[in-house]
Target: Contactin associated protein-like 3
Amino acid sequence: MDLWRKKEWRIVTQLVLMLFSSFRDMGAELCHSPLVLSLSPSSFRSSSQFSSSHGPGFAKLNRREGAGGWSPMDSDEYQWLEVDLGERKQVTAVATQGRYGSSDWQTAYRLMFSDAGHNWRQYRQEGSIGVFSGNSNADSVVQHKLQQPVVTRYVRLVPLHWNPKGRIGLRLETYGCPYNSDVVSLDGHSSLCFRLSPMQMSSRSLFVKFKSMKNSGVLLHTEGQNDHSLTLELNEGRLLLLLRKGRSLPLSSPHTVSLSSLLDDQHWHRVAVEHRSNHLNLTVDKSTMRVELPAWFTFWGHDQMHVGADQSSNRNFHGCLENLVYNGLNLVELAKHKDPRVDVKGNVTFSCSEPVFVAVTFTGPRSLLILPGGSDPPSVGGSVRLQFRTWNKEGLLLTYDLPKREGTVWLYLSQASLHLQVHKPDRAPLELRAGSALSDGQWHSVDLISGQEHLTLTVDKDEGAQASPSFLVTPGGRLFFGGCPTKETNMECRNLFRHFQGCMRLITVNNQPVDLIKVQQRMMGDFTNLQIDMCGIIDRCSPSHCEHEGSCSQTWSTFHCNCSNTGYSGATCHSSIYEQSCEAYKHKGNTSGFYYIDVDGSGPIKPHRMFCNMTEDKTWTVIRHNNTELTRIHPSPEGGQIYFEYAANEEQLYKMIDQSERCEQEVTYHCRKTPLLNTPDGSLLRWWIGGPGAGVKQSSWGGGLMGSQQCSCSLQENCDDLGHHTNSSVWAIDSGVLTNKESLPVRSLVLGDIQIPGFQSAYKVGPLHCHGDKNIWNAAFFDMETSYLHFPTFHGELSAD
Model:
């Protein structure tokens, strides 16, 4: 390409980048309109207000009506200001001020979002815990652009810190634009079936957003006349992608992959399946996985899609789907307009209705929920029911005193099982146990039912543990959930166990549901350090930070990597416990033998056991294959191909060859009346494949020159039959060592059809030998025993340059 053409391309590239940047900025500007400015005062709510002139309706940015903004009755971490945007909008930024002309402003806050005014979700900036910096005075505007826009109807701001010389004071604005979508709601018994037109493989893509009310159920299932199918299914809050040939593939099939978790949190999640040549890209929210397509799954060719169910199971989806787009076609829009290609089964609605489950989050040792017990406990018995989810194996769920303080009840987790202890003076402790593996992050239900001489503890509606006490195990006073108050003088609550960290919901006492919103409003009970109307559980193992197939486990606040049997160590299994080469083992004083070699250190290639020959000045790494002995080739009219399977895999071989100073491999070819060419200038009858990847066709043999298409006797002109480049009467041994790294290792021998009476041949391909480690020059090491700094031994010549 000449200089002028290069300048042209450079100019065009710069113009394209400028246009792309302009369109991106224009898109950002188009979605930056004020969303709060035109709202009525009835669109605002708050936890409390200092006075009527400090109410939430005065909290618009730059407004001075009333007292110039919102201030709560008390300035503490339980206050909040909420805005109803009227409908779901795309929010891209938020701005705050303090209360006009005052010393009241917040210096840090948390941002929450919700579709229905319940089940709030905290916004988290990438790389942070989701705390936004606030104001430093009453009137300056501080604006934050959200790294990822949020689609929501309700916005809630929770002040965390404020001016110590004043109170919480707030005016705010959110920025964004309208959000249009097509939504369908399925009740767990309904479904949709679409008849599709098969399209070209290169255009295959599927996008959908979903909100699930249950942790399991089939989102969609596509199939075609070729008996191939693709299924997206929720299984215990994780998304499964299943590729089937027929209907016999079990869930443990290698063509099943899972991604993400906690997808049953009743929040929207985005899924994308995109076809890319020989693989699929599966995306859930911000996580993407590459899914290799099996050979039989060459193209989809699907002509049916079942949404909400498949025809072979009862695992129906219960929840909402939004903007289901298949190859550019909006399928929800088709269903909404009663397109003849759509069959509707059951109760299908085109809005997202959802039950209200108010959850509470116990975040730490000071988290506590106190509920009143009955002043007159029922004489025939009582019950306590709840649901919880946690990652912790230990923790107190509930404790209370028996009537007249004649004993104490503890309901707690121990070793991920549920335990009940009842202590009463002068009696042996009563103990029950139910459930197992309850620290898996899933919702689990608990039923504690007490009657006359009957006590039952049930977990997840299964058969539980029972006892027959002679007394009622009913609350005689207040009920303490999660722990006990920190006051040492409190004799009403004693916690003998660890505090609970996790979420609870659907609490009922004596068959009366507990209204946790009233608790939040301080209208009943009491609480400390709770997040009410949200479950703040986080999966720290999805995606896993454990490398090299280390197994990830977690508690509420941290995660742990088990590096056993991985060959790696460290907090995330990052550091290899093996050396990168035989040279490195020799420098540490080892002798010849088998060692595990990790050719890329902490990289993705697994360590492998190889033989290190240290008997010579040079240290050789020996990589064997499945046939290193002299092997006779038996005549076959069809010819054939002989493959060599090496002890190391492809990545290990390539990396070993690349980082070694020299590699070599002996190839011996014995022949009698065995031509390599059908004519001196004709096509090859026998050749070998060598090199990285699939390898390259090689026409020279051990004793021949590269590219000569001859063996050594032909080049030396001592074959009996030079016309056929072979030895016709005696065995010719063509032996040599291949040293060209680009042609190593030898992958296979290809044997063509030879129709010469009496022809005989044999081959021997030795192990691959490599020596010298380029990486060893990058580090010296310090010997703690001798206090010497050791440098690698130099093999080669020094240049004056």
Remarks:
- The mean pLDDT is 84.
- The first strand starts at residue 33 and ends at 34.
- The chain has six helices and 55 strands.
